[in-house]
Amino acid sequence: xxxxxxxxxxxxxxxxxxxxxxxxxxxxxxxxxxxxxxxxxxxxxxxxxxxxxxxxxxxxxxxxxxxxxxxxxxxxxxxxxxxxxxxxxxxxxxxxxxxxxxxxxxxxxxxxxxxxxxxxxxxxx
Length: 125
Fold this sequence. Notes:
Helix content is 63%, strand content 8%. It has helices spanning 12-32, 38-55, 60-99; strands spanning 100-104, 110-114.
């Protein structure tokens, strides 16, 4: 399979700046919970990194700063995913309560209370 070539008209400095701005937008999206913005930003980052690789840019001090920002954003993304998982688990637990509820009596015997919550909407004039 032939290697994909990336054409760019940007200089390495411009690409570094664009990547820095992209990482800042990603941080803002993660902090505000705008998860819809994450996928396009990841694609933009990939494109910019491919352009840097095509140029062979190796400005170590700039790359270190960008690496630190990328690692910070990874921590934020992991936290967001953990939060989503916890909400999902909590919603699943709440859903199971609609079908039955387990409780224990004074002797420690488990009792299950069955039931389906039926909701009625009453319209008033």
